[in-house]
Amino acid sequence: MRRTMAKTLTCAVAVLCVVSTLALAEEMTCSKDNGKDCIMAKDANGDEVEVMVSEVKAGDKLTCTQTGDRMICQKDPVKPQKDAMKKK
Fold this sequence. Notes:
The chain has a domain at 25-77. A five-stranded antiparallel β-sheet has the order 3-2-1-4-5, with helices on one face. The chain is built from two helices and five strands. The chain has 88 residues and is α+β, with helices and mostly antiparallel strands. It starts with a helix and ends with a helix.
């Protein structure tokens, strides 16, 4: 009985850890670039954070995750438009 309870509790904690990581991801917008890379990003509240994302220009959308004291961001993938797909 204890082994079953321990296994269930372990699985529940593992799932919560994964879900909490996903819940911390937030959408940000690149607010400043150096001509090649994004160096500052702004969140929905208007707070700016220093980041370094390659090949991103100001105005591009980013998905960022806070891990410890670092903010890790990546460019949101571009969704193809339905009209563009119909023309091909």
